[in-house]
Amino acid sequence: MKNKNLKLEILTLAVATGLVGIAQARPAEVYLNGQPLHTSVAPVNQNGRLLVPLRDIFEGLGANVNYSDFTHSISANRGNTNVQMTLGSRLAQVNGQRVTLDVPAKTYGGRTMVPLRFVSEAMGASVNYNPARYLVSINSNGAYAANPGSGTQVGGFRQISIPANTVVPVTLDQTLSSADASVGQTFTATVASSQPGDSEFPAGTHIRGVVTEVVRKSGSNPGVLDLRFRSATLPDGSTVPLQGQLTSLDSSSVTDDNGRIVAKASKGKSDTLKVVGIGAAAGFVLGRVLKKDGALPTILGALGGLIYDKTKNKDKAAEARVESGTRLGVRLDSPVTYRDTTGYYQQRSNFIRL
Description:
Layout: H1 2-17, E1 29-32, E2 35-36, E3 44-46, E4 49-53, H2 54-60, E5 64-68, E6 73-78, E7 81-86, E8 91-94, E9 97-100, E10 106-108, E11 111-115, H3 116-122, E12 126-130, E13 135-139, E14 152-154, E15 157-162, E16 167-172, E17 176-177, E18 186-191, E19 206-215, E20 224-233, E21 239-247, E22 254-257, E23 260-263, E24 274-277, E25 284-292, E26 295-301, E27 307-309, E28 321-322, E29 327-332, E30 336-340, H4 344-348
Parallel strand pairs: 1-13
Antiparallel strand pairs: 1-2, 3-4, 4-11, 5-6, 6-7, 7-8, 8-9, 10-11, 12-13, 14-15, 15-30, 16-18, 16-29, 17-28, 18-19, 19-20, 20-21, 20-24, 21-29, 22-23, 24-25, 25-26, 26-27
């Protein structure tokens, strides 16, 4: 009877503190700049958002934090960035700008817990989550400027943040060929989307690219095109600057990270992929062109693992040609943040959550 009462008391306490069910789940591990972030208590999952101890995360990011027991308010400073929050309130401020949180800061078991993604991105850090390993990675990059991320609201509109190394599937809007392309030539690609919220940008977004290198086919040397991406034009007409390059969308090149497509680490010396002509029958390959003695002897391909050697494949050399409608990936070299004026954040949140 005593054991039964004890179990009932424990369950009642778990429900009262909001921790029921959490103890049975594997707690997420948090890494900051590649090193484990040791927290005084385990992170708590609240409605799909991860809450972490206030001082552990703020001080881990190099911020000075003050908490008022009287007003239950939190104030943190790092460089020129100031963040203010109040326990139980979904309203916060980043450098005086009003921000709406998905979940408010709360108290669990006597500890003040704050939303990890909001705090990290408000302090200029990027956040990635690996659900298979229950691993949260925070990269501060030494940044001090505020960078409101996914789920924040500034000036009446939500801000959507996309971390570096994210891959955006697109389809080319026009055919490009090393036979007639020129350096500096611009082109566009349309964001590929089959249902609302499944891409980093709303359906109808066009990403502008530029040709940065052209090599014509010459003898046994195939044609080569190097394509980079510079901006995205959203359906509302606004333009978002970005820096991106081509990548393949096959499983050896990308992986799914909690609803977000990210590029896998390359084993090669360079992550830069170029369009390489390998013959009319085979089409083209995205590959790393390795130079040796001024020649182009070898191409390490990202599509199909092609290894092209000009001394053995003279009949396969062709112009690099990518047809309109070809589906490829744009890998972002740096984080991108844009203002959501169409309510896309809510659709996106159905696919990606922390």
